[in-house]
């Protein structure tokens, strides 16, 4: 019994370390002036956050192309430790990712999950359906649309529990 308890004591931290090592690293480096606020919080007091860096992600809602830039409307979700949007979580507002040049809508399909890195550059009033809405604007320096395979990476298939369960992937 004593040997089993000791081996369990040493193996638990090792198991935790091994499982943590399976998670991919964040894709963007966080800067010192990065904001931890959600788009909904920024929309309430944009002057407080203007000019700060953000790394936000979520689900693509719409892409609009203009003569010199494109705007990608995103329904924001919290990010995991690898900066992937947690799409099964509660949305935390909407924002518009402003990118230079032309953004091919097929590269940013409606419903796709994406993460952007950029700088907060004010807000714009608009509508979601018929409801008025304030969108924080992110001048995007980098963006990444996640594939289904990338979203699965780092999510191990080891689950602990008691009872019967059925999982569908």
Automatic annotation (TrEMBL):
Signal peptide: 1-20
Any Pfam family the entry gives: Slp
InterPro entries in UniProt: OMP_Slp
UniProt keyword list: Lipoprotein, Signal
Coiled coil: none
Record's protein name: Slp family lipoprotein
Natural source organism: Rhodanobacter caeni
């Amino acid at each position: 019994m004593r040997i089993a308890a000791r081996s369990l004591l040493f193996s638990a931290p090792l198991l935790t370390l091994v499982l943590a090592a399976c998670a991919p690293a964040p894709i963007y480096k966080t800067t010192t002036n990065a904001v931890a606020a959600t788009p909904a919080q920024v929309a309430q007091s944009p002057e407080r956050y203007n000019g700060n860096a953000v790394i936000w992600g979520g689900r693509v809602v719409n892409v609009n192309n203009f003569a010199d830039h494109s705007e990608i409307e995103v329904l924001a979700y919290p990010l995991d430790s690898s900066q992937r949007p947690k799409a099964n979580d509660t949305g935390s507002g909407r924002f518009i990712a402003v990118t230079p040049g032309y953004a091919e809508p097929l590269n940013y399909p409606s419903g796709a999950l994406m993460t952007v890195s950029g700088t907060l550059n004010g807000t714009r009033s608009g509508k979601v359906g018929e409801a008025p809405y304030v969108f924080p604007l992110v001048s995007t320096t980098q963006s990444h649309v996640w594939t289904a395979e990338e979203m699965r990476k780092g999510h191990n298939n080891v689950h602990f529990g008691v009872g019967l369960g059925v999982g569908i992937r």
